[in-house]
Design a protein that fits this description.
Chain lengths: 806, 170
């Protein structure tokens, strides 16, 4: 006892707390194939559900005949909208305040929409019977173009809303209109444009994509008729929300619903919402009295459960002739598909799209978004980004490059000139956000120095000259971007989902022997929460991270939380973890004072112990205090050592970064080779640099996929033509560039440990960086804005359009 | 079509153990492994043989077990992720490498990726980075961006060769 060695620094290192590259706890099971994913769950008597889906994008259903399907040996039941109506579940509410058909009711509104649900003893039998459900359709004209959908004579898509002039987000101006959302100073912005020296105006479209995690969406529902209780295992990024929504929809009391999200094989926004498969599995389990598993296949995943983007942004910037921006105006048409099933906080139908002023000091701005129904799959999820933030970042970063081109300025110089200055933080943007902290100029300077930016531009100039002389058929592009994200939703004053404030939570229990368990309302899908939350607690409480278990995803044991998406785990639950730990530490201090017979104030904290000020050899370690909490607390104090914290963040956090991409394009083949990609991220305090780097690598790879080839595309008949991995581009190890990562650290001033969140930054910054590089390569030949995705074929076409193949 | 076909007998060796079972002729190998043998390490990530999450080793070749019928594996010697660690629980160098180099995140592609990497190192015990990238191009990962998977395989190659592992300069 009372050993002063090892030193404070050695003891701190042994804890494996914040800042260290702790190896991941979860890996032990994953590398041995011992993860426990939903499809690994096997229950006694389990049945399997599978959907009959619509081949048409828009059709009236004249008749559904399930006789043949139901007659297949091993088929237990076939559900249709008519069956679901008997329990009032033919339609379900969406997170966005709309309603969605669970099974087609009278009409189908998009291809592959769920029409009937076959429940069978074996998945093969269910798949056989799905084909035997006979549906008589009367095809209707379909509309997959959000601009045409708003034409006065456009076919009505949502007959249930036909006569409703008022939607959940205000007035509807057309039968295919979802909402109009505006922010900013319209008159002031118009005035800025009137007085501008220079303006640009470009339609910047961000195509429809899909998060495509390697594991699809799936669930197992098990209803216990005797107890009247439902247990639902599923790929849920937000288990508590699923429980509450499930209770509201099914009328099963919430305390009788147990939602469990086991290991999840990637989410990226795909697994936030509630899908017809979940509802059908629940109903099927209630009807049959047996557990029912539903696992979507990849085609179903890509074509029905969630999409992302499909934002079409008419973008204007006003500026002085020396390059100071004076106004921003963005008018967006947002394609929401057949049902508004966006996973945005309720008051934000266009997410946080008003982050579109980006990292720049715009004195005035105005943004308007019209949501539109089309005959496409519902969704509008935040694919590895906070709500509509990557759309906003792509919009402003492309627009800044277009402005630079018009001004004949270097795009990095234009950014330097307009970046918000360090002394302006906290900075209130023209569209209403209060950016918490930033040091943008330092970050961009560091990035430019790291890649040798000036030298690259000199090389580019020489190569452009060589190209013009006909000495090469390759063009070189340099993409520069500076992004600011808005994550960590969010403060209860402006963020809720269906009325539930977007706080998050942590509960920590210290066991008598000084080990601990913490439970959280978030849910890891690969982010490594079991590793990093323990690091926060280790530093806060002086207990080794290896002695702390982290548990998420069980709504019976975890305190209520809103889940993991929008980079909210560290900003919200990470804060709750630190706050819960501090409650425990405060109690431990009182116990220490009691044991050491001094006043609380006479103690100071030293890594893993309280020691008496001035007499450091008198101390009590946290492990000793844990034991004492269960047998020697001061008179009048409750025994035990545990705490819960519900953290309502005072503000969002604003991670930022500077990315630079260098690539070469063969104009005769369209083949693009990424020579170099450098990413500098500032996510505030860094909890585990190894995991941060891994997150950046992954996010950049997803950004590469989106910018360079991914697309959920429909033909004019409403057929989704990219619904399998044959057509939907997922980068392999061969195409994926090598990533260089770097960082600066500007802590968040309002977060207990100064952390901002990082998982989504690389997607937000990466997409415009690739796009800017491709556009930069062709800029000297007269291109202004070549739309994504920049696959070889489209890049070849862009070159062709510029007359390069003449 | 809807009639359950009569079952056929298959025998094979899976992770060193003899297996004798009855299967429907149409049963895919991945379903046999996961549902009948409870080997849930190999996963299903697509319908088109692209993702490689179901990769297992069959008679010394990497195969995508979603694209083979179980009957095609009759008489074969199979290795899945569950057979990679030593009997005493010691992790294989690849399993160690994936953890050391942060070569995984959600863990869904990992079993297929490790089994594929195992075969790659059998074929080429000292692969270059390009060899590795090409060698694992049939296995998709949505989380890591592959860079650390490459390092994990280099780590394992070095360890299996008894050489010190040196991270290449970034």
């Amino acid at each position: 006892m009372n050993d002063q060695t090892p030193t404070s620094a050695q003891r701190a290192e042994a804890l494996q707390g914040m800042g260290c590259k702790r190896k991941r706890v979860e890996d032990i099971r994953f590398v041995q194939g011992r993860g426990n994913y939903v499809d690994d769950i096997k229950l006694q008597g389990m049945l399997y559900g599978d959907f009959t889906r619509s081949p048409y994008a828009h059709a009236r259903i004249k008749n559904i005949d399930t006789t043949k399907a139901a007659a297949v040996p091993g088929v237990v039941a076939v559900l249709t909208a008519e069956t679901l109506k008997t329990v009032n579940l033919a339609w379900m509410p969406t997170l966005a305040g709309d309603v969605q058909m669970v099974l087609a009711d009278g009409k189908v509104l998009f291809q592959n929409q769920e029409v009937a649900f076959v429940i069978a003893e074996h998945p093969y039998i269910a798949a056989d019977a799905v084909d035997l459900v006979e549906v008589e359709y009367e095809q209707l004209p379909c509309n997959v173009d959000p601009f045409k959908a708003m034409a006065p004579d456009a076919q009505v898509i949502r007959e249930d809303l036909k006569d409703k002039t008022e939607g959940v987000h205000g007035k509807r101006k057309h039968h295919n209109h979802v909402f109009n959302w505006q922010m900013g100073d319209k008159d002031g912005t118009d005035a800025a444009f009137k007085n501008a020296d220079v303006t640009i105006n470009e339609m910047i479209s961000y195509h429809r994509v899909h998060p495509c995690p390697l594991e699809t969406c799936q669930c197992v529902a098990s209803f216990d008729k005797i107890k009247g209780e439902l247990t639902l295992w599923g790929t849920f990024q937000a288990p508590h929300v699923i429980r509450t929504v499930g209770s509201l929809i099914s009328k099963i009391p919430e305390h009788k619903i147990h939602v469990i999200a086991p290991d999840i094989g990637g989410g990226f926004g795909n697994k936030v919402g509630a899908y017809p498969g979940y509802i059908c599995a629940i109903v099927a389990s209630i009807v049959t009295g047996r557990p029912v598993k539903w696992v979507e296949d990849r085609i179903e995943n890509l074509s029905t459960t969630a999409f992302a983007r499909d934002y079409h942004m008419q973008t204007e910037i006003a500026a002085t002739k020396d390059g100071k921006v004076t106004g921003l105006r963005v008018y967006t048409i947002a394609d929401h598909g057949a049902f508004d099933a966006c996973a945005d906080p309720t008051k934000w139908p266009a997410g946080f799209f008003n982050i579109v002023t980006g990292s720049y000091d715009f004195p005035v701005a105005h943004v308007a978004v019209d949501g539109v129904y089309t005959n496409k799959a519902p969704g509008g999820v935040a694919y590895r980004c906070s709500f509509r933030v990557t759309e906003a970042a792509y919009c402003i970063e492309r627009a800044m490059d277009i402005l630079a081109q018009k001004l004949k300025m270097d795009p990095a110089e234009l950014r330097m000139k307009n970046l918000i200055r360090r002394e302006q933080f906290p900075y209130t943007s023209a569209l209403g956000w209060e950016y918490d902290s930033g040091d943008y100029h330092t970050a961009l300077t560091k990035a430019m120095d790291a890649v040798g930016y000036k030298k690259l531009r000199t090389e580019q100039k020489a190569r452009q000259d060589a190209f013009k002389r006909g000495e090469t058929r390759e063009v070189m592009g340099i993409g520069v971007i500076f992004f600011t994200e808005i994550v960590g939703a969010g403060p209860s004053r402006n963020c809720d989902i269906l009325g539930i404030a977007m706080f998050d939570s942590a509960e920590i229990r210290i066991h008598p022997t000084g080990t601990a368990i913490a439970r959280l309302g978030t849910k890891s899908q690969g982010q490594g929460h079991e590793t990093t939350y323990a690091q926060i607690i280790a530093t806060e409480l002086g207990l080794p991270a290896d002695n702390i278990s982290i548990e998420e995803g069980n709504t019976d044991t975890a305190p209520y939380g809103l889940g993991t998406y929008g980079s909210r785990s560290t900003p919200v639950s990470g804060a709750a973890t630190a706050m819960a730990a501090r409650k425990i530490k405060a109690k431990a201090q009182m116990i220490a004072a009691h044991l050491l017979e001094v006043h609380d104030d006479d103690l100071e904290w030293d890594v893993d112990r309280f020691r008496v000020k001035g007499t450091p050899e008198r101390f009590k370690t946290m492990t000793e205090l844990a034991w004492a909490a269960y047998h020697g607390v001061p008179p009048g104090m409750e025994p035990g050592l545990e705490a819960v914290s519900y953290y309502d963040p005072p503000n969002m956090t604003y991670p930022f970064g500077a990315y630079i991409c260098v690539l070469d394009i063969d104009v005769d083949t369209g083949v693009t080779k990424v020579r170099r990609f450098y990413a500098l991220d500032d996510c505030g305090t860094r909890i585990n640099p190894m995991i941060i780097e891994g997150q950046i690598h992954g996010g950049l790879t997803e950004a590469f996929g989106i910018a360079m080839g991914q697309e959920i595309r429909y033909d004019d008949e409403g057929n989704v033509v990219t619904a399998s991995l044959m057509d939907y581009f997922l980068p392999t190890a061969v195409e994926t560039p090598k990533w260089e990562t770097d960082w600066t650290t500007t802590p968040s001033p309002h977060h207990p440990i100064g952390a901002k969140g990082v998982g989504e930054s690389p997607n937000v910054g990466g997409v415009p960086c690739f796009a800017n590089a491709v556009n930069d390569a062709f800029g000297f030949l007269g291109a202004t804005h070549i739309p994504m995705p920049h696959d070889h074929w489209r890049t070849w076409m862009a070159a062709d359009k510029l007359g390069l193949h003449a | 079509m809807s009639k359950v076909q009569s079952k056929v007998q298959v025998t094979m060796k899976v992770n060193g153990k003899a297996v004798d079972a009855l299967v429907e002729p149409r049963t895919l190998l991945i379903h046999f492994l996961r549902e009948q043998l409870n080997l849930t390490g190999p996963h299903i990530g697509c319908d088109t043989s692209h993702c490689g999450a179901c990769t297992v080793d069959l008679d010394g070749k990497s195969v995508k077990s979603c694209t083979l019928f179980t009957v095609q594996a009759n008489g074969a010697d199979l290795l899945t992720i569950e057979g990679m660690a030593a009997a005493d629980g010691t992790l294989h160098a690849l399993q160690e490498g994936f953890r050391e180099m942060h070569g995984l995140q959600c863990g869904f592609c990992t079993p297929g990726m490790i089994v594929r990497a195992h075969r790659l190192l059998q074929e080429n015990n000292n692969p270059t980075e390009d060899d590795i990238r090409m060698g694992i191009s049939g296995n998709l990962c949505r989380c890591t961006g592959y860079q650390n998977i490459v390092k994990a395989i280099q780590f394992a190659a070095a360890k299996l060769n008894g050489a010190p592992f040196q991270e290449a300069a970034e």
